[in-house]
Design goal:
Blueprint lengths: L1 H5 L31 E4 L5 E3 L3 H8 L3 E9 L31 E9 L4 E5 L6 H12 L3 H10 L5 E2 L31 E4 L5 E3 L12 H9 L3 E4 L12 E3 L4 E4 L3 H6 L15 H10 L4 H4 L6 E2 L15 H10 L3 H9 L3 H7 L8 H13 L25 H7 L14 H15 L14 E8 L5 E8 L2 E3 L9 H14 L15 E3 H9 L2 E8 L4 E11 L5 E6 L2 E4 L3 E4 L3 E3 L3 E3 L21 H6 L6 H9 L4 H10 L5 H11 L18 H9 L4 H10 L4 H10 L19 H4 L7 E11 L7 E8 L2 E6 L2 E4 L8 E8 L3
Parallel strand pairs: 6-11, 15-19, 16-22
Antiparallel strand pairs: 1-2, 1-3, 3-4, 4-5, 7-8, 7-9, 9-10, 10-11, 12-27, 13-14, 13-18, 17-18, 19-28, 20-21, 23-24, 24-25, 24-28, 25-26, 26-27
Helix pairs in contact: 9-14, 10-12, 11-12, 12-13, 18-19, 19-20, 21-22, 22-23
């Protein structure tokens, strides 16, 4: 006890602002349920496993720790009970996802390092300061759990401000108990009853063309009648009814719903549930991933354990992160940087005071967690559905918190695009490497791209940029099974059948060779309204694209989200025939040839200023038809450089809450910020071009960079014009390079109508066999979906 009293100055009583970690080690995935328990530093409130707490003592000198050990209660009945269906999109709360976990009992003690002197807790003999400090730690919600609950618990529905003052029209309308149909079309599902006038109208059109025809929301815009209830969700339990407030743009509670329904003769007590509510559809997507082919459902999954075969716990729509990180940590560059050449202790010693906020530390922690094999062991409890041995997996909470810091989407619980996350990860890793290529594993994915623009005058311009992915369009006209497709479509038309009514085996999908996708990328493309400095006017130019270097790892992104006839966005239901080995040697660019003449420098100022961004009317019209605001749609098209409906809609969904979203579009030129000019200059662009680009893009650096690449005649130097004796080689630019032959080693597959919903799964070639990584499930793949990938990862074959 005297030893503890002599160290009281190193004990803090937590303040409300302190982040308290007590559920997971900051350096490993050890928890209080691990064999050695967890040690909470009573000065910094960071938690450490038994093997790592000494490192913290040596680094900080903090000697006093709260030891927490959880021991499973005996009795199989505690955890062999059946799973309960969730009613709330939450974990660890009443009605949330039931993990079917056994119950544990906690024991505590005070431990003083370095000799691990242990004192019992609770004990009246402990100094009051220690007792208060420990009680505060134990009663506080841990920082890990705070983030988990904040991410998972869906917002509870609020009472609508319009419910209590709703004026209902005495129209004499009586709503029957069934047999409803939209008043403006033939839709008989997804129908909404307006609680003011009794109109029954269909819901919003989904972005993939499914759903309703927007008649309900259009009716609100015409009448301003605020509340509607979804027919088919009304039962005796009125709280379960799906009531939507258009002015509040959210699902709400209507405490007077019984009266509002009675106004139209509806006896809710006798009605049956026939439709899913919005929340139930979201839950259904999170709990039922029955996409057979990609998940290899129905096949016997032989689990795999050991180093490199550790699963990742789904934190709530985090499968995009899990699939991406499993493949990233299968590359030599990431393995070397964060595992084989960097120990946990080394990363901890370099980390700041709080290692939970350090990207290098958390990547090292994740790397060791995935690759050491320490956590890839069978648990005693077997999978209830299959009877197979399973592993618990590791929860990448601290890594997700760091990598998503400051990013509104990745820090949320919403599903994200695996491609966007992959690019975000590489950017963060590159920034964290302090401009030291030898410490930057992201460079193994980077390659040079060169665009050659041939003017109708016969003269040329060259652009260069670096990239980390090849984004490929899918040329459906190159399908190799056209005869089977035609027969299938004729058969379908003859029967009047929809694909939704057919089994998966009956549907014939186009099969497009990967070679055709690569050829499309490299094929010539017309540029209309190209300003030629040789002709001193606008003309049509031809752009061809090649690679100046071949990366260690080549990532191919399949652009499966396209526009079909009538400008309806659609996910292509298509197979890509991907060989195990590809050769892209023919895609290497040749640079400026001796017979080619460069376009003259300089574009007139008036041409620069006339190049103000204008929204593509077809993109705007399609978004407006989905129910989005006209002004918002115009901004989305402009801010995505009219790249397409999918890109514009993703921008819309990410910027709906921007404070200036309703501000008018302004094309007025303003003085540019000198710091922005300096930033562009640091990228290698000349000052005059940087100023023109910033003026044309209203000061946005990212858009200004795009503008420069889209206006190669702004000056000679902004294009990074290459010639045989002046161009940088890949080695000089720090990019990896080698031969053009690659071997497929990883696939990220996506299931769902949008990259922002559904589920992601990874398949990785390890030790000569394909392995499926489906969140925490890891097993031998018997039928890897090579033809259904969203992202394909190839490794260069040296020699």
């Amino acid at each position: 006890m005297e030893l503890l009293r002599s160290n009281l100055s190193r004990v803090q009583i937590p303040e409300p602002t302190h982040r308290i970690y007590k559920h997971e080690c900051c350096l490993s995935f050890d928890t209080s349920r691990s064999e050695g328990g967890l040690f909470v530093d009573m000065n910094s409130f960071l938690a450490f496993g038994k093997d790592y707490v000494v490192w913290n003592y040596e680094k900080t000198g903090n000697p006093v720790y709260l030891h927490i050990k959880e021991t499973k209660k005996s009795g199989p009945e505690d955890y062999d009970r059946p799973l309960k269906k969730p009613t709330l999109l939450a974990i660890g709360v009443d009605g949330g996802f039931d993990n079917n976990e056994p119950e544990y009992e906690e024991s505590y003690s005070i431990v003083i390092l370095p000799d691990f002197v242990s004192l019992p807790f609770p004990s009246v003999e402990l100094p009051e300061k220690v007792r208060i400090a420990v009680d505060t730690v134990l009663s506080a919600v841990g920082a890990e759990r705070k983030e988990q609950v904040a991410a998972w618990t869906a917002e509870k529905k609020q009472i609508s401000e319009h419910a209590l003052t709703l004026q209902q029209i005495k129209s004499g309308i009586v709503i029957p108990p069934s047999g409803w149909k939209c008043a403006k079309c033939d839709k008989r599902e997804n129908l909404w009853l307006n609680l003011t006038d009794g109109m029954i109208l269909c819901g919003r059109k989904n972005w993939d063309g499914t759903g309703g025809n927007n008649h309900a929301v259009e009716h609100y815009k015409e009448t301003a009648y605020p509340l509607a209830v979804k027919l088919g969700t009304i039962t005796a339990d009125l709280e379960g009814a799906d009531v939507y407030s258009y002015p509040e743009d959210d699902s709400v509670l209507d405490p007077l719903l019984a009266e509002h329904l009675a106004h139209f003769g509806i006896d809710f007590s006798s009605m049956q549930k026939t439709e899913m509510t919005t929340a139930e559809r979201e839950l259904d997507q999170n709990t039922n991933f029955d996409w057979n082919r990609i998940q290899e459902s129905g096949k016997e999954l032989v689990p795999v354990f050991g180093p490199g075969y550790t699963g990742l716990v789904n934190l709530g729509n985090s499968c995009y992160l899990a699939a991406t990180m499993q493949i990233v940590f299968s590359t030599h560059s990431f393995i070397s940087r964060y595992f084989s050449h960097q120990s946990l202790k080394m990363a901890f010693e370099m980390a700041p005071a709080d290692p939970t906020l350090d990207l290098n530390m958390q990547l090292t922690k994740l790397g060791h967690g995935l690759l050491s094999g320490k956590y890839s062991i069978p648990v005693t409890k077997k999978d209830a559905a299959t009877g197979d041995a399973k592993q618990e997996g590791i929860p990448p909470r601290m890594f997700k918190s760091v990598i998503a810091a400051g990013h509104a989407e990745f820090s949320s619980v919403r599903q994200q695009d695996a491609l966007e996350f992959f690019l975000h990860l590489l950017d963060k890793v590159e920034r964290g490497s302090n401009n030291r290529p030898d410490l930057d594993p992201s460079r193994s994915f980077k390659f040079g791209v060169e665009e050659k623009i041939l003017c109708s005058s016969g003269k040329v311009a060259y652009n260069k940029r670096d990239d980390c992915i090849l984004s490929l369009n899918i040329p459906l006209h190159e399908a190799t099974n056209k005869a089977e497709l035609e027969a299938f479509n004729n058969q379908k038309a003859g029967k009047g059948a929809e694909e939704n009514d057919m089994s998966t085996d009956e549907i014939v999908r186009p099969r497009v060779p990967l070679e055709a996708c690569l050829a499309t990328f490299a094929s010539p493309e017309q540029i209309h309204d190209f300003y030629s400095t040789a002709l001193k006017g606008k003309t049509t130019a031809i752009k061809t694209t090649g690679l100046t270097s071949f990366p260690d790892y080549l990532v191919l992104h399949m652009r499966k989200f396209v526009m079909e006839e009538g400008w309806v966005p659609k996910k292509l239901d298509v197979y890509i025939d991907v060989p195990d080995v590809i050769d892209i040697s023919h895609m290497r660019s040749k640079g400026l040839q001796p017979c080619e003449e460069l376009l003259p420098d300089g574009v007139p100022e008036e041409v620069m200023e006339s190049a103000q961004p204008v929204a593509n009317e077809e993109i705007v019209a399609q978004l407006v038809s989905m129910g989005f605001n006209q002004l918002h749609c115009q901004k989305a098209a402009i801010n995505t450089s009219n790249a397409g409906v999918e890109e514009a809609m993703n921008w819309l969904l990410s910027h709906m809450d921007d404070p200036d979203i309703d501000a008018p579009i302004s094309h007025q030129t303003t003085d540019v910020d000198q710091s922005s000019v300096d930033t562009l200059i640091s990228f290698g662009f000349p000052e005059d071009v940087a100023r023109k680009a910033l003026k044309a893009s209203k000061g946005d650096i990212e858009k200004a960079t795009d503008w420069i690449f889209n206006n190669p005649n702004a000056s000679s130097s902004d294009m990074d014009v290459s010639s045989s004796n002046s161009a940088q080689t890949p080695a000089q630019s720090g990019l990896p390079d080698g031969g053009g032959r690659y071997k497929l080693f990883g696939i990220v597959s996506h299931m769902g109508t949008s990259t922002h919903c559904g589920h992601y799964v990874a398949h990785i070639l390890k030790e000569g066999r394909w392995v499926i990584f489906n969140d925490s499930k890891v097993g031998v793949s018997t039928d890897p979906p090579k033809d259904m990938g969203y992202l394909y990862f190839f490794q260069r074959i040296d020699g």
